[in-house]
Amino acid sequence: MSIWTKVLYAVVSVSVATVYGLTLGGIVRKLYARVHGRFGPPVWQPFLDIIQTYSRRVAVSHGNMFFLGPVLRLAGGLGTYLFIPVIFGSALFSNFSMAGDLLLVMYFVFFGQLGMALGAGQGGHPYSPLGIARGLAQMSAFEVPFSLAVIAVAIQYNSLNITSIVAAQQGGFMHWTLFTNPLAVIAAMISILGMNMHAPFSIVMAPQEIPIGPPIEMNGSFLSILQTNRGLFAAAKLVLFMNLFFGGATNIIEMIVKTFFIYMFSVFVGAAYPRFRPEQSFRFFLKWPAFIGVLSIIYITYLGGAS
Amino acid sequence: MNRKHIDEIEKQMKLANEGLPEEERKFFADVIPTRVDPFNKYWEQFLNWARSRSLWMLAFGTGCGATELRPLMTSRFDMARFGIFPRPTPRQASVFVVGGYASIKTIKRIIRSYEQMQGPKYVIALGSCTINGGMYYDSYNTINRLDYYIPVDVYIAGCMPRPEALIAGFNRLKEKIVAGECEGMNEYTDKFDWFKKNQKEIIKDWNMPDYNW
User: Fold this and answer.
1) Would the CB atoms of B118 and A40 count as touching at under 8 Å?
2) How many domains is chain B built from?
3) How far apart are CA A135 and CA A281, in angstroms?
4) I need a labelling partner for B58 at 20 to 30 A (CA). Which of A141, A208, B107, B133 fits?
């Protein structure tokens, strides 16, 4: 396949993921509204919001890093998504998957937030660094169980290539990591609660505490880049979890069903619980989830009979 | 026109920021805001359609009318179904709801917040106090007419207007946005000197920059 065909496929794949991620965001807003006893905004509201922020006629910038912040954030989202094979066996949705892409993706998951930290800091609003300090601390905390779970998966399938990890899980749902190594999945699913930043881990953009944290000075097109990235990045994370722990997907319907339920897990938890204080959140991830992650590695190395 | 004339005109265009101490003046905007025209007709119509369906409200309770916004936000009246959301920062907001009377101290903050909003921006003035002073018409420290100080798009009369009246006001604002009649942002820049004169007349201790960009 020529590189231009691959680029064309990647553009299609990124567009589909962005639209899917934004629609999921709209569904989540509707769900939260129903939990509150409201009707809530229409499902397509995130798209209207992006057009509205993009259509501002003026935008205030605070310097070069402020420009680069949203760009790096979007680069993080794109980088995460472009190295994950979305649909197993599909040329259109295989993206740029290659040997060792799991390490690259894990790096890109955290790259965007670092870029945002540099950009938002230049905004000069005191709530931005406060939100960023919380965000980076929480990120370091939930990275521990997540990395342990990924290490367990890498040991189990003896590979750092997402495509071959998905290939090893084919042939019935009993081959999924969910059933072959449940401890790793438990640790990872707890860490996705922090990654998606719904309650109780919504400490970064805590609306009533630090108005909206890092992007507080972002306006107009800067904000619309961040909103686009929110859709794309949400889809990328869900697809990564689906590939590593839930057997991947062989067609787009399967992908949508699986990622929808993975997302709904953190939404249901978010609708049921109030927000943690920052220090409670950091400590939470470093206790039981980290311990379960270590157990999963022990399990797969000594008891699970690593293949 | 020679260089000297251009320099003179540029000097007149600059803001003096006289309310600030000498060493702080350089940190703030010193240029008068300029008019930003709409895009071409059909593109602007499309954008206006989207703007009217995604109104981000500045959540800043300026007067007692702010109490009426709480039932509007929550389950009873649920403004989210009309595409109206509270936004905690003026940088991202597009609608400024001035909730009732504005004292001299508050009008200072209203002006700063309004100027920090990125256009196109809309203002809804809520309650009789913003129209003619209402029950505070002869008070020593409230303003009587809001549109002397910032351009207002929609007035909602009443003391206090109920959330239903607010929803009607928001719907009127939406109609005006779709019709392309809400150019308050350009009105403010066109009549900048007049608005600044009115503002400085009422605010005696002007210790802020002349324009907050």
Assistant:
1) no
2) 1
3) 11
4) B133
Q: Is A211 on the interface with B (CB under 8 A)?
A: yes
DSSP-assigned states of every residue in A70-138:
HHHHHHHHHHHHHTS-SSTT-STT-TT--TTHHHHHHHHHHHHHHHHHHHHHTT--THHHHHHHHHHHH
Determine the Cα–Cα distance for residues A197 and A278; give it in Å rounded to an integer.
12
Q: What is the pLDDT of residues A22-79, one digit of tens each?
A: 999 999 999 999 998 899 899 999 999 999 999 888 888 888 888 888 888 899 889 8
Q: Determine contact, residues B153/B119, Cβ cutoff 8 Å.
A: no
- Pick the range with the lowest mean pLDDT from A24-28, A213-217, A265-269, B170-174: A213-217
With a cut of 70, say whether residue A304 has pLDDT above it: no
Mutate to test the interface with B, among A35, A56, A62, A225 (most CBs of B within 10 A): A56
In the block, residue with structure tokens 């290539």: A161
Smallest Cβ distance to B118: which of A33, A49, A59?
A59
Ramachandran angles phi, psi of B96, nearest 5°: -110, 115
Question: Are the Cβ atoms of B80 and A56 closer than 8 angstroms?
Answer: no
CA separation for the pair A118, A124 (Å, rounded): 11
CATH of the domain at B160: 3.40.50.12280
Give the 3-state secondary structure of residue B155: strand
Domain assignment present for B92 = yes
Kindly determine whether residue B83 and residue A217, on different chains, have CB atoms separated by under 8 Å: no
The Cα A296–Cα A302 span in angstroms is 10
Touching check for B54 and chain A: CB below 8 Å? yes
Structural domain harbouring B105: 55-202
Enter the tokens of residue A8: 């064309």
In a domain, B36, yes or no: no
pLDDT in tens, B142-197: 888 888 999 999 999 988 888 999 999 999 999 999 998 888 888 998 898 899 88
CB contact under 8 A, A42 and B36: no
Does any CB of chain A come closer than 8 Å to the CB of residue B113?
no
Taking residue B43's Cβ as centre, other Cβ atoms within 10 Å add up to 11
* Residue A3 neighbours by CB under 8 Å, 6+ apart: none
Q: Hunting for tokens 């350009």 — which residue is that?
A: B186
CB contact set of B126 (below 8 Å; sequence gap of 6+):
B63, B65, B68, B97, B98, B99, B100, B156, B160, B161, B166, B169
Q: Do A57 and B81 touch (CB under 8 A)?
A: no
* Cβ(A286)–Cβ(A141) below 8 Å: yes
Percent of chain B with pLDDT over 70: 96
Q: Which of B50, B80, B88 sits opposite A55 (nearest CB)?
A: B50
Of B56, B75, B88, the CB nearest to A36: B75
Which of A28, A52, A53 is the best residue to mutate to test the B interface, defined by the most B CB atoms within 10 Å of its own CB?
Answer: A52
